[in-house]
Amino acid sequence: MDLKNLPKLKQIMKKTYIFITTMLIVSNLAFSQKKKSVATPVLDKLELLKQEVIKKIDDRQKFTQEVNDQIFSFGELGFQEFETSKYLTNLLEKNGFTVERGVAGMPTAWIAKWGSGKPVIAIGSDIDCIPKASQKPGVAYKDPIIEGAPGHGEGHNSGQALNITAVLALKEVMERDKISGTLVLWPGVAEEQVGAKAIYVREGYFKDVDACIFTHVADNLGVSWGDAGNNGLVSVKFHFEGEAAHAAGAPWRGRSALDAVELMDIGWNFKREHLETTQRSHYVISDGGDQPNVVPSKATVWYYFRDRTYPRIRKLFESGIKIAEGAAMMTDTKFTYEILGSAWPGHFNKPIADAMYQNIKRVGLPQWSEEDQILAKASQKELKSPRIDGLAIKLDTMSEPVYSPNIIRQGGSDDIADISWSLPTVVLRYPSNMPGMPGHHWANAITMATPIAHKGCTAGAKAEALTILDMLFKPEIIKNAWEYYNKEQTKEIKYTPLISKDDKPAIQLNKEIMEKFRPEMSKYYYDSTKYKSYLEQLGIKYPTVRAEK
After folding, report:
1. pLDDT score, position 37
2. For the residues 100-106, what does the mean pLDDT come to?
3. How far apart are the C-alpha atoms of 269 and 518, rounded to whole Å?
4. Which of 215, 249, 329, 482 suits a disulfide with 125, CB 3.0-4.6 Å?
């Protein structure tokens, strides 16, 4: 090489480098601008649709109130939700949904579908109530509509009102703009008996679903992800059979099935001393015989065995079987057992929860009126709540997971967990109840057909609808949801049902109770054609509180 030409060569190389670098920058800029020009209209459209859907939900507040109040007035126990299901399925059919009734061997279960293509999003909420929880809404002290009758002291009447409001608002824009996606509505039948959702899963009703949003009443607007820190359970009836005899004339000829039940209960209560601190268990004697002068030939005790993990639940159940066997041996009776329902401990999806929480922050809590707060504070005072500060005015933060099976956040169970272990699922909590209530109690019905419930449903419907819109327009949410489900949630823990392939839904439960109370309850069903609200129909001044002494 001629060294005299070296400076010239360096200059040429420098110019070439600058040219190539400049061209690369221009090219990348042009590509990014092109990418932005494609992405921006999509995001702009999503934002406009969100604004539109929020307005549509606001415009449906009267509709939401009517659905909420109607279901409240039915007040049907698990597996007997006939009026509720008839009302909801007829409503959905009128709005263009295809409805399949009586699914999974349950007369009150149904699946309602609208739309086409992917993604397929399931939207569910429970519909059953609890015994002896009849209560006049808007009254801050015990005042049953019908003494001893069932009622929505768990607040399940509100979830379907929320879901249908959200879905109908979405349906309008999806239909108009030809947006791909299938919406699947379904009811949590007999949730208080954890009697349906594991059977839904077993029968394959969620096998083609991409994501599930479930809604449940609460006292704030929120969502969580990961291990919820709750218990799973198995619901089991132990049936004992002995021999009848005259209890006074020839008791030695009898073998008391009731004695076996009582001995099992005693044995279990001694067993509690040696159980994990996360364990919860409870029982009722559902059949204790017919009359005192006849040795009971048949008796039944119904147990819920709860704990934080599947192996521990199985262990509890097996301990129960051993104690039942011992009780049968001591009384010379025979026993069988029947699984009525089950639930896994819950685990919920992080990517969907993250998306939902952004929408929750956007929606915020309802604006409570002075009357709303008066009712809440008076109810809290009546129930001797540890807090008497009324309805929530500060939004919940997103709950973090519980990272140890030895830690319990709350001892309750919900069979939505079985669905959460089958596909990406979240639970949207919405503020239709008030803080400090006992739960599963007549007092939890106080707000459930009042403006508090109505406002909470509307807020929840907005958060749900916006999250579904996100999933329709941002496919990465569902992609990431399944990645979390496969690589995090189910990496080491695999779902094993607590029910067998032969266990059938316990559709006979609560039949006698509803047959007893339904004729009188039907007199109080809400008539939205005559009354603006259920409060108006019942002649209740809102709010009604105890007079100050």
Report:
1. 47
2. 98
3. 36
4. 215
Distances (CA, A) of 400 to 100, 384, 491: 37, 29, 19
Helix (H) or strand (E) holding 342: strand 334-343
pLDDT at 21 over 70: no
pLDDT score for 14: 59
State the DSSP H helix or E strand holding residue 354, giving kind and residue range, or none if neither.
helix 350-363
- Amino acid at residue number 214: F
The C-alpha angle with vertex 33 and arms to 31 and 35, in degrees rounded to 5, equals: 70
Residue 460 backbone class (left: φ over 0; alpha: ψ -120 to 50; beta: rest) = alpha
Place of tokens 């939505």: 416
Can you list the positions of beta strands (E) in 476-548? none
E-strand stretches of 75-180:
98-101, 110-116, 120-126
Identify whether the C-beta of residue 119 lies closer than 8 Å to the C-beta of residue 409: no
pTM attached to this predicted model: 0.91
Residue 16: band (very low, low, confident or very high) from pLDDT cuts 50, 70, 90: low
Written as six digits, the tokens of 323 are 């104690």
89 membership: H or E segment, kind and range: helix 82-94
C-beta of residue 459 within 8 angstroms of C-beta of residue 366: yes
Render 31-52 in DSSP notation, one character per residue.
HHHHHHHHHHHHHHHHHHHHHH
Domains assigned to the chain: 51-230+345-538 (3.40.630.10), 232-341 (3.30.70.360)
Distance, CA of 35 to CA of 432 (rounded, Å): 43
User: pLDDT averaged over the chain?
Assistant: 94
